[in-house]
Amino acid sequence: MALANINELLLVYTTYFIATASPGPSNMAIMGTAMKKGRASALAMASGVVVSSMMWACLAAAGILTLLATFAELLFALKIVGGLYLLWLAFKAGKSALKPVSPAQDPAATQHPAGYMTMFRQGVLMHITNPKAILTWVAIMSVALKPGAASASLPAIVLGCAAICITVFSGYAVLFSTAFMISLYRKIQRGLDGVLAVCFTLAGLQLLTGRN
Q1: What sign does the dihedral 85-86-90-92 (CA atoms) show?
Q2: Are 13 and 143 in contact (CB under 8 A)?
Q3: Where exactly are the structural domains of the chain?
C-alpha cells in the first residue's frame, strides 16, 4: 500500500477515534449504565452501539448510505426519532435523580439475560437513530471509494474502524464499571443522574431543532 494511502488511513482512523471517543449520548449512556448496573450491562449496551455503527459502515461501503443521505426526509425522520429517544433517556435519568438513593447492592445481582438484551437494544436504537453517524460514515467512505483509491483501502477502513469502535465503547464500559467508579457513583448518584438528564436533554433538543 502506497505511503499516501497509509497517510489517508491514519487520518481516517484518527478522525473516527476522535468522533467515537468524544463525549456524546452513546458514551454517556454506557458510562451511566456501567456505574449503575455493572460491567455486563454496559458491555451489552456497547455491543448494541457497535453493531449499529457497523451496520452503517456496511451500508456506506456498499454505496447505499450515500444515496440515503441525499434524502432529506430520511435524515429528518431520524433526527425526530433520535431526538425523542434522547429526551426519553433524559426523563429516565431525571426521574432517577429525584429518587432517594437506594441501599448499596451488587449491580450484577439485579441483572439477568433479558436485562442484557434490553441494554443491547437501547444501544442499537440510540446509535442507529443518530444522523451524525450516517454523515460520519459517508465522509469516511468518500476516502475509500474515491477514484484511484487502493483496493485494500475499503476493508482496511471498515476493519480498522470496527476495532476502534469496539475498543472505545467497550473501554468506556470497563473503565466506568470498576469498583472505584461504582463506589463513586453511589456517593454522587443523584447528582450524576441529574447531569446525564441535562446532557441527554440538550442533545435531544439539538437533534430536534438543529438545521444540520
Answers
A1: positive
A2: no
A3: 3-15+37-82+111-177
Decide if 96 contacts 193 (C-beta within 8 A): yes
Is 66 within 8 Å of 201 (Cβ atoms)?
no
- Higher-scoring residue by pLDDT: 123, 97: 123
| Of 43, 50, 41, nearest in space to 106 by CA | 41
Question: Of the candidates 122, 137, 101, 143, which has an alpha carbon nearest to the alpha carbon of residue 200?
Answer: 122
142-193: pLDDT as tens digits: 766 666 665 667 788 889 999 999 999 999 999 999 988 888 887 887 888 8
How many Å apart are CA 205 and CA 64, to the nearest integer? 28
Max CA pair span of the chain: 61
**101 compared with 185, residue with greater pLDDT:** 185
Do residues 197 and 93 make contact, with C-beta atoms less than 8 angstroms apart? Answer: yes
- Closest by CA to 172, choosing from 18, 32, 16, 52, is 32
Q: Report how far apart, in Å, the C-alpha atoms of 151 and of each of 16, 75, 147 are.
A: 20, 30, 10
94 class by beta-carbon count within 10 Å (0-12 exposed, 13-18 middle, 19+ buried): middle
What is the DSSP track for 127-153? HHT-HHHHHHHHHHHHHHSSTT--TTH
Whether the per-residue pLDDT at 26 is higher than 80: the answer is yes
